[in-house]
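Hi support team,

I submitted a single chain yesterday and got back a structure, but I'm not sure I'm reading the token output correctly. Could someone confirm the output below corresponds to the sequence I sent? I've pasted both exactly as they appear in my results page.

Thanks,
R.
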Amino acid sequence: MEDHHLHAFLAESLALWRVAGKVRAGQGKVCAQIHASSGAIAWVERAGDDTPFRWFVRWRAAGEAPGGVRELRPRACGSLVGLLAALREALGVERGSPVRVVPAPERV
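Hi R., thanks for writing in. Yes, this is the structure output for that exact sequence:
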């Protein structure tokens, strides 16, 4: 996925989650930075070709001092689903109720 597509996807995800914030381009391995109005910051890094993951997510919660454990030990994400889960955790977004799809009851 190209960076500009990832930025648009993340911006739409923030809007869907009703999180006020901005998605910005990063530098080097960082392909996106998310700055929430709450003060939380998340960095999405591209993983190297030698790893089974696509991205790593580092973050700092609002009011947290720089250099915390979540910045030093990023969360590995193998898919967009994993990336979204890491960002929801980083930004404090509740998951919500899951949707269940079941067959319609039989009519008698």
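A quick pointer for reading it: Residues 3-17 form the longest helix (15 residues). Let us know if anything else looks off.

Best,
Support desk
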